[in-house]
Amino acid sequence: HPSISQVLVADSDKFTHPLAETWARLVQLVQQKGEYSHIITASNSFGKNILPRAAALLDVSPITDVIAISSSNQFVRPIYAGNALCTVRYSGSNPCMLSVRSTSFAVSVDSKSNEAPISQVDLSTFDEDFVGKSRYINHTAQVTERPDLGNAQVVITGGRALKSAENFKMIEKLAEKLGAAVGATRAAVDAGFVPNDLQVGQTGKIVAPKLYMAFGVSGAIQHLAGIRDSKVIVAVNKDADAPIFQVADYGLVGDLFEVIPELLEKLPEKK
Ligand SMILES: Cc1cc2nc3c(=O)[nH]c(=O)nc-3n(C[C@H](O)[C@H](O)[C@H](O)COP(=O)(O)OP(=O)(O)OC[C@H]3O[C@@H](n4cnc5c(N)ncnc54)[C@H](O)[C@@H]3O)c2cc1C
Description:
Distance between the termini: 35 Å
Shape: elongated
Binding site for FAD: 160, 185-186, 199-203, 216-223, 237
Subcellular location: Mitochondrion matrix
CATH architecture of the largest domain: 3-Layer(aba) Sandwich
Family: Belongs to the ETF alpha-subunit/FixB family.
Strand content: 15-25%
Helix content: 10-25%
GO cellular component, one term: mitochondrial matrix
Number of strands: 13
CATH topology of the largest domain: Rossmann fold
Oligomer: single chain
Bound molecules: flavin-adenine dinucleotide
Main location: mitochondrion
């Protein structure tokens, strides 16, 4: 990419497992040597885990969830669960540390390209004992063929109205037919229908698909905070006054236990 002038590689078995403590220390080390003006990470769980730790080590205050960059020290970020946008100016010392919502930034496809040198980070001063009390035990991951929730073009979400994990399988079947990712409200996650990595919203994932379909979702502000950038929102809810209809492009007042089976029947099989 033409904007990349250098790639730094920290190649060591110290970083085999993504422990935030170790990686934050690495960011500190790289910053101390490079004296960069800005350090930016994506607002995903990995970035959110490392950024505050690295910022504390570097004694600066990070700015999180940036959705627009107005200048080198001025940024826009949502507040009150996305109901207001706040413009903030960074007036601290370098580095200015940001987490950015990747759903708010389009990747520019530039015809020019640039070869950037790749250099190894000098880890001779990396402190082995720094990791402190955190130890890597094991890693469990959900193996799924479905698209990643954060990048999916289509997301099908189910809410508390699904009533059980068994019923939630209807949402999964529909997602399969549409090649979509599955999402859930916090109420559905708290009720144990699905694991919490499927939660969409203020305290879950932020999504920006082309099509977002919500079944039995009331549309609480904390949920809407995660779906605002979706292109088309479709909602099915049996309560015509549900707040989700205020943001939906298409709304159907109906019972999901009738609508989903009908959709499953009428939609063609996935090729
Ligand atoms: C600090 C904080 C952070 C939060 N973060 C999040 C977050 O990240 N994500 C999130 O989702 N929530 C979050 N919440 C919770 C949020 O406030 C709501 O409680 C939650 O989103 C409600 O989930 P729901 O829409 O599934 O359930 P409900 O609000 O109970 O809504 C269920 C809906 O289903 C409809 N319904 C019922 N039966 C049927 C049927 N048979 N067919 C069709 N429709 C039906 C009902 O009319 C209703 O509108 C947060 C709350 C707090 C306080």
